[in-house]
Amino acid sequence: NAGVTQTPKFQVLKTGQSMTLQCAQDMNHEYMSWYRQDPGMGLRLIHYSVGAGITDQGEVPNGYNVSRSTTEDFPLRLLSAAPSQTSVYFCASSRTPEGYNSPLHFGNGTRLTVT
Amino acid sequence: AQSVTQLDSQVPVFEEAPVELRCNYSSSVSVYLFWYVQYPNQGLQLLLKYLSGSTLVESINGFEAEFNKSQTSFHLRKPSVHISDTAEYFCAVSDPNTDKLIFGTGTRLQVFP
Fold first, then answer.
1. pLDDT tens digits, residue range A26-79?
2. Tens digits of residue pLDDT in B17-66
3. Which positions ≥6 away from B33 have C-beta within 8 Å?
4. Is the minimum CB–CB distance between B43 and chain A shorter than 8 Å?
5. Could you say which of A42, A105, A106 has the minimum Cβ distance to residue B106?
6. A44, A38 Cβ separation under 8 angstroms
7. Nearest CA in chain A to B40
8. Does residue B30 belong to the interface with chain A, where contact is any CB pair within 8 Å?
């Protein structure tokens, strides 16, 4: 049971570099989302998708891009990394978009440090 | 806007002692409430949820939470904790306007032997 798989687990970037955080799920979930977790701030929604070809912004979208070309994959791109993007990033998926209808399944996270 | 407040950032407790993790939410309209748990180096997992019906909901590992509409609270309790309960616990509410989950800032439960 793979569930939600995130790669890499750790990444160090220099300011201005770009990278893509990968997320894949094998549960045929329509809804996928990206969160960042910061001390004292809990989880904040960055971007989400309710199906292939459809994406939308969450609470903190600036500095991040997403795309959803397949049901399985939902990569998060940082075009020009900044120290403020140092965080732990979680990808999550669920069967339905509504937060109450089905539970969110989370990956194990990517710990990103921007120097 | 909907918000969730977890009053305690850390709760240290000895094994076999009772524990309560507090959660308050802001909305006065009907909401759905959740507790998620994050074990070290893992993603979050759903622990329990309240959608409707009985105000007391239970998890499979002995946790329970009670929905209190008048106090807008959804506190998590366990009568006797184990070392393995050491984790971070997040309260969340479903925003009635967006249907998205709003998470609290988390409470780190540390169980000592």
1. 999 999 999 999 988 889 999 999 999 999 999 999 999 999 999 999 999 999
2. 999 999 999 876 778 899 999 998 888 999 999 988 888 999 988 999 99
3. B23, B25, B49, B50, B65, B67, B74, B91, B92, B93, B94
4. yes
5. A42
6. yes
7. A108
8. no
